[in-house]
Amino acid sequence: MTSEVSPILDLFSLTLEVNHLQKACDFYQQVVGLKVQALDEKQGTCTLEFSSGQQLHLWMPITRQVPSERLSQLGARGGSHVHWAMQIPKGTLQQAREHLGQHGIPWQEIDLASGDQPADLGLYFWDPAFHGLELREVDVQDERFPVVPPGQAAETGLPVVGLREVALAFQDYAAMKQRLPEAYGFAFLKEMEDRNFAQFTLGPWPERDGLFTPRRWLYAWDPQVGLADMLGGEHATVTFLADVDAVEKRVRQSGLSHFRDEQGLVVCDPEGHVFEFVPFEFMQD
Question: In angstroms, rounded to a whole number, what is the distance separating the alpha carbons of residues 202 and 216?
Fold first, then answer.
């Protein structure tokens, strides 16, 4: 670990690639309980919002067109088979189990706690495009608040209050471990002994996961089958809240392909992921 302060503040949005736009949009609206902010069937895009203000974008690839002219400059795509997690308030796991059961959605439960921690269950299931979803309970009164606090659970759908984590695959695992902290400033937390699996805290410094913390995370591993048979995402597009000037300085020094405009900084990672960095004020626009 390093004592250097990370310029990464929080997780803002994730973009998923889907093969049936309306089916995926309905799933996230009716089953998960997100609010549809924009739906463009001709363009093949849907934007949904969490109560925290974070967003989920769905892109359906359509020949001879791109879902985002701006992000297409660096070949942005929606992620394939992305494993990602959402926050639910502590004490609502049974409610989530029952809700998924009512919709006929099978789920798997795994205790993710370390040996010295109380049980910390993850609830895993799939969306219609075979992205791997996870629910984790968080203590909404925890003092380790992220920049974007959890929202309020909706009256319908799952008791989701925000994004929690994104898991991405990297073919060159060793290069990734060096690049993510150096080229972007992600705060490295830990690595597993028996797997090529690294965890980065999306905040100013590395913090321990578990114990129902509302902090958010970026997981990075080599192409492998993870928990609940889920894979890390490929060619994912992810947006982070950040000190954009500080990230841009690192990116310039690294020589990575990028551009910056009035919206933020967009970088093409060598593994094909596209990372966007925007200021906190972006959420208030």
Answer: 5
